[in-house]
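Weekly sync notes, structure subgroup
Attendees: PM, AL, DS (notes)

Item 1: joint prediction request from the bench team. They want all two components modeled as one assembly rather than separately. Inputs as received:
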Amino acid sequence: MKFLSRPEEIILFTVFQLKENAYCVPIRKKASEISGKEWSFGSVYVPLHRLEKKGLVRSQFDTPSPKRGGRSKRIYEITPAGLKALAEVRELNKSMWAGVPEFSIK
Amino acid sequence: MTRIRKPPQVLEGLLQYILPRYVGDTALGDFEEECEYIASKQGLAFANLWYVFQIIKSIPAFVIDAGRGGGIMLKNYIITSFRYLTRHKTFSFINIFGMSIALACCLLILLFIRNELTYDRFHENSDYIYRIYTKRVSSSGKVSYHNFTPAPLADPILNETTGVENLTRIGISRPYWVFSGEKSIKAEVTPVDPSLFDLFSFPLENNSKGSQALNSISDAVISKKLAKKLFSNEQPVGKSLRIHEMGDFLITGVLREIPANSSQDFDVLVDINNTPIKANFTSWGAFMVETYIQLQKNYAPVRLENQFSDIVKEHFPERFLRRTSYSFYLQPLKDVYLNRQNIPGIAAAGSMPYIYILSGIALVIAFIACINFMNLSIISSSGRAKEIGMRKTLGAVRSQIIKQFMTEAFLFSLLALIVGIVFARMFLPTFSLLLDKNIELNTILHPIMFLNIFCILLLFTVLSGGYPSFFLSHFNFNEIQRIGVKVGRNSIVLRKILVIIQFSLSLIFIIATVAMRSQLEFLKTRDLGFDEEHVVAIPYPREKNPLWLDTLKTELLKNPNIVSVSGCLSYPGYRFFSGAPVEIKDLDGSEKIQSIIETVDESYISTLGIEISEGRNFSKEFSTDFNEAVIVNEKFIKSAGLKSPIGIEMITRFRKFPKGIIIGVVKNFHLKSLLHEIEPVMFVMNPIFGYGNVLVRIRSNQIQDGLGYIKNQWNELAPGEPFEYHFLDSEFEKHYHLERRWSMIAFYASLLAIFIASLGMFGLVGLITVQRTKEIGIRKVLGASLSNIVKLLTREFTTLILISNLIAWPVAYLIVRRWLQDYPYRISLGVGIFLIASVIAILIALFSTSIQAVKAALADPVEALRHE
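Output from the run, pasted for the record:
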């Protein structure tokens, strides 16, 4: 399998979680919530763009609304390949920690 | 209804340009949505700030994105620029040299501005410190402001108001002689409250608290500079210091060096409560101290200002309030140096106009340098047409050509900046001296300065590369291949206009310089109405009574080198207090005029060589002269409207000299510098304020001997009294230091302007000559003489310079006339000044154009024609 970078992984996860409402603003908010630190727009756009290139997400424009100055949103949606990749990451994390019964920083 | 909070259009446009293409339009929507969200939470200003921050953050991505397609091209642009630079050495030299000089100017002035704007910020509490200033409204409704306050104001403020954290008073400092052992030095002595050290951050040498240093009233704190002078390397703390006329003090602390951008500077600090000093500071009527307060954090200054009115009501003595009303306000410490609120009448050491004018000069010089780049780029474009054509053939679009030339302009500016920093380093001492500032280069490393310098760099790039890149990029490839580049009519007209602008600006500088010089010369040489040469003023010892003057006189006059001796209160060229009202008797109503009152003796008029136009001089023969005789000047007569002044009686406000009778009139002469108009003056023989100075006229060719003699006599007659003297003529010249400074600044500015402009013209003629090589060859073969060719090549520029004159003259006339308006005594703006300036400019320009022209004209025509 191809490894995802951590930002890509988080972004992919948020797209999966947000379902229909996955466009940049909520993605950024969600990602900030998960990681506990502020994500800039740039750090959202770039992984999204990369994920799209890899075919893990796909995007389409919705109808423009006046709220955003007449500009359309770009709604992202996770592809089957993306779901698979996410599942792999989950498995990977599991197997990575499998042999460690207890963990604390000493 | 929710208001839609949109980010500003400009910012949005900028962001759209900068954002990577693949995020596109939707991203703008995202940003807008977020911006609105932030605005609803933290306010619009914060949202806008956030927006700007986002733009800045996007810049790295923008650069990387540009590099995706353009990285290789960028490298190529840089390579071609360097190739071009090395192959066209003259062109590059002229550009970089001119630009670096201009950049050095900008850098230096930037440093100066930063220095000016950061005054007094080094104090830890600078945000909470305020200076109290006084507003006086007289019964006639005249409003005046004053940065001094009465000293007794401090106690009620400390005891009866809220919000004040701390308060300190700084009394007017005066020069005193200070003695330590054998050494004596004149130093400024400033009486202050010990709390000065709590309010301000003036650290002492050994880090001890300054407020404890001024513990007892006979303690003194001295500056490091003074300590060096008095004690060289010895430890000054614990030593005693005698201040002339004040007594003995114990040195308890040494001030560490005060930063250059402090509006306060001290030599000697003594406690304001020290008895002999305190006497000066007890009256509510004496506005002798500056009061600084430190407000509690978050306490609005207005709240304190409102409490001041109660203090005035309660504590101000009745008699002061009868004719005048007083109120007090706060001025932030940060604004004290520049007087940013522009409160009229408040003395400020710095000035905003000063900053504006200097920035203006720097920008003009920058502009002149950028014009060089523009002109030279355009005129040499024919040489680059093939390159551009080739690029277009290979698929370059217009925007890429623009990018290429902008890169080139940027590189040139960058190189110029590096050279410019070296120049700035070289000019710094001269510059500091010129402005009388201690400016350091290392502030360049400050982040804000860094940003400013970067902005200047961009400005230079856009100014110099903007037009050429658009001009060069519009060439049509087919046309270039077919007929070569034709520099169109428009660009020739533009070039001419640019040259005219350059020379007009330079000419304005030159005219201003010539005018300032003549005005300065005028001030220095104008007849003052008396003979100011070979006269020295010696401060009269304060401990001696007026009778001592006679002793001194008799002793001094024994020497043949001493022509005459006279006692007086002040002396011409020194400060005079503005007039006091004098009432003229026997005149309709109670006519009052403002008159300066000056104590003199009977030999004053002869010592200074003043002419008496009516009446007689003071004389000891008339016993009444001492008590009521007055001599006035003609201006006095004119202001009072007197027809036959002799014998007119007047009433003064001075208790010791209540009435006077005019016994004589002297011709007008200048008591104050020529920056002031002649005011009404009355001379009295009665030393009601004592004598302040002794004037001695020395035989003109025996100055040294005369001075030596006076010194000896002085030491004998007044042992222990320091001897110092001032020549009256140099005292007058001291007043013109601003004029001298500005004429020097104008001189340097015009020197640089004309130099850079001529450099550009030199380059232009050079490039034109190369283009016309064949034409010149043919003309020479057909019999044209050297002068024909030179004329041919320089004619265009001579015309341009003449046109520049037409533009520069009226503009300069208006500027110089405005500047001269502030002078009561000024030169008349004749054609001469303009002619001199023009001749200078034309000669320089002709010289720079002719070098190239003559070179071309002397070339062998065979060489020129063999070209193909």
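Discussion: Residues 80-97 of chain A form the longest helix (18 residues).
Action: AL to compare against the crosslinking data before next sync.
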